[in-house]
Design goal:
278 residues; alpha/beta; two-stranded parallel sheet; 9 strands; 53% helix
């Protein structure tokens, strides 16, 4: 499907850094007008200055606050109109052993990653339905379809995004609105650098076996996937085989994960015996 972005309105939450900003630069380069949404005004202004083209705007908003999201949506409608692409990229992560993570972390993951996605969709759904067109792109994670050691809080919120997107896809297809869900692997972003010291040793070992994508690579696959009408967008090679394995093997996937964790713990023991830092 050849879909031109020239003159389209693309709203991106979490648009001041990482995948969101990389996606903003790409769609702006294809002629879209971008509405960047994030909490920090200063970072938004820096991000805005890096976008090619004209007609872009920034909106400071905490997606976890529905009242703030409604105000932001009303302003976007007044300034730019109804988005053609609605991208929910805002998200936070906090890895760690379940028994060490404060319960507040679980609430934070759900408030921003899941409810933030729901809030933005809710705020724009009526004008999109009235127009009977548009794309909603929700960012989940590989940890949103595969239980990854060390991500009990983050993974649960991203599983929720996947479940929400599944139902939304079915409900909105008759309304003329396409829904897409993205499952990125580890991506070189400020968020990844933040979480690295917090990862349990087992999670670090698991990450060593997988590849690392750039935010630009993920953004390019998102644009390509949306244009081709794909529902599940799996950037890179690792998410693709993991997705196939989890669907084909079913519960057999748990045996593979258990084996990988057991192997990781053996590697941790050997490294510690040598006095190596993990």
């Amino acid at each position: 499907m050849k879909t031109s972005l020239q003159g389209k309105i693309v709203l991106i939450t979490g648009g001041s850094s990482g995948i969101g900003l990389a996606l903003a630069r790409q769609v702006a380069g294809e002629g879209a007008r971008v509405a960047l949404v994030a909490r920090g005004q200063e970072k938004l202004e820096i991000a805005l200055a890096s976008l090619p083209g004209e007609g872009h705007r920034i909106y400071s908003c905490d997606v976890a606050d529905f009242a703030a999201v409604e105000r932001m949506a009303a302003q976007v409608q007044a300034d730019m109109g109804t988005p053609d692409w609605l991208v929910n990229s805002a998200g936070v992560t906090r890895p760690g052993y379940f028994w060490e993570l404060p319960v507040e972390v679980f609430h934070q993951m759900m408030e921003i990653n899941y409810y933030g996605t729901v809030h933005v969709c809710k705020a724009f759904i009526e004008p999109m339905r009235a127009r009977r067109s548009g794309h909603i792109i929700n960012l989940s994670s590989v940890a949103g379809f595969l239980g990854v050691f060390g991500y009990s809080a983050y993974g649960a919120s991203k599983f929720a995004v996947w479940g929400f997107s599944d139902t939304l896809r079915a409900e909105l297809k008759p309304e003329g609105i396409a829904v897409h869900v993205v499952f990125p692997p580890d991506t070189d972003t400020p968020q990844l650098h933040y979480e690295m010291p917090l990862k349990p040793p087992e999670t670090k070992i698991l990450a060593e076996t997988g590849g690392l994508l750039t935010a630009e690579q993920v953004a390019a696959e998102i644009v390509r996937g949306v244009k081709r009408g794909k529902y599940a967008i799996l950037p890179g090679s690792d998410p693709k085989w993991m997705w196939k394995a989890s669907h084909l093997l079913g519960c057999g996937t748990y045996k593979i994960m258990d084996w990988l964790i057991a192997r990781a713990r053996r590697q941790i023991a050997r490294r510690r015996a040598k006095g190596e830092e993990i």
